[in-house]
Amino acid sequence: MAIFDETRYLERLQFFNGQRLLASDLQGIETFNREMRWLHNKSLHQPGIGSGFAIYGKKGNRKVTINPGYAIDALGREIVLTQSQEEPIPPISAEGDGKSVFYDLTVSYPDNSGLEETETREGICLPRGVVRLQEAPVFCWVRLQRDGQENLRVKNSKIKEDIKNGLKIVLARIEVFNCQLKQDPSIAQRRNARPAKQPYIACGQVLPEWEFPDSQNQQEQFPLKLKATIETTKAGFLIPPCYSARIEGSRTVEIKTNKSPPDTTLFLVEFMHIEERKAEEFTVEDFVCISGIQQEHEEKVKDHIRSNWNIVWMGVEG
After folding, report:
1. 35-52 residue pLDDT tens
2. Residues 133-178: pLDDT tens digits?
3. Which region, left, alpha or beta, applies to residue 185 given φ > 0 means left and ψ of -120 to 50 means alpha?
4. Which of 153, 163, 253, 303 allows an S-S link to 266, with CB 3.0 to 4.6 Å?
5. Per its UniProt entry, which superkingdom is the organism in (predicted)?
6. What is the domain partition of the chain in residue ranges?
C-alpha cells in the first residue's frame, strides 16, 4: 500500500489564515484519509463481502441481477455498488463435449484509468478540470474448466492469481447451457469480509499421485519411501493451517506366485509425517515397512499403493 511504500512517516496537514491553497494540498488530505482507511480495512478485515451483493437469477434466465453491496479487496479498497445492476450471462451453448459451462461472477475495484468523469468545472483563468470521478465496481465473468476429477478451476492464470490474492471477489457461480441458466446461481463460493470467530475447518479425501523417491540413507526397517503433495486450494485457507492426515486403504497385498506356497501376503505398516505446510497444499512423506518383501514384489506393492491408498486430511485455520 502506498502509505508504506512512499511515506516513511505520517504527516498531519495544517493550514493558517491567509495561506494560499493549491489543488495538491486539498488532494493530499483526501489521499491521506483514503490510505489510512484502506490500511484499517486491510489490517482488520479479510478480502470478501461485507454486506449485500445479492445475486438473483432463475433457471432459463439469460441475465442475473446484482443488488447493491459493499466488499473489501486484499488492499483494503472498498468496492461499493449503490444501485441494482443487471449482467447478461455469457452467450455460450455448451462445452465441446456437450456439457454445460460454468462461470464465476467476480467484482473488483476499478483501475484509476477506468474511472468515469462525472463532473468537470472551468478553472479561473485555467483550462477546465475534473472535480468528480465515479468509482463504479468492475464485474467480470470468469470461465471455469474441468480437470480430470471433474473439479472446476479458473482457466485464466492471471485471473486465478487475482482471485487467490483477494483482488477479485467471487460473488456467485452459474451453470450455462444453451445460452441460459441451467439452474439458479450458487453463492457457496462467496467469502465474508468479517473473519469467522471460530476456527475455520476444512477436510477432504484424495487419491494422490504417489512418488517413490530413492533415499540415500535407506534403512532396512523402512525399505520403501513414499511422497505426495496434497492440494487444498478448494478449502480457501488464507494462512497455512494445522494439517492432520491419514491413509485410507488396504494394508495387505495378495501376490500370486509360481513358487510354493503359491500365494504370498505382504503386510504394510506406514509411518507418515507432514511437511511443507502451505495455505494451498501440503506434502506428506511415508515410510512403509513391508513384511517379507522381495525385489520382484516391489513394483506390485507400488501399484497397490498408487491405486488404493487415499489421503484423508483435515486443516484447522486458527
Report:
1. 889 999 888 888 999 999
2. 778 888 999 988 887 656 788 888 898 889 988 899 999 999 888 8
3. beta
4. 253
5. Bacteria
6. 22-181, 201-317
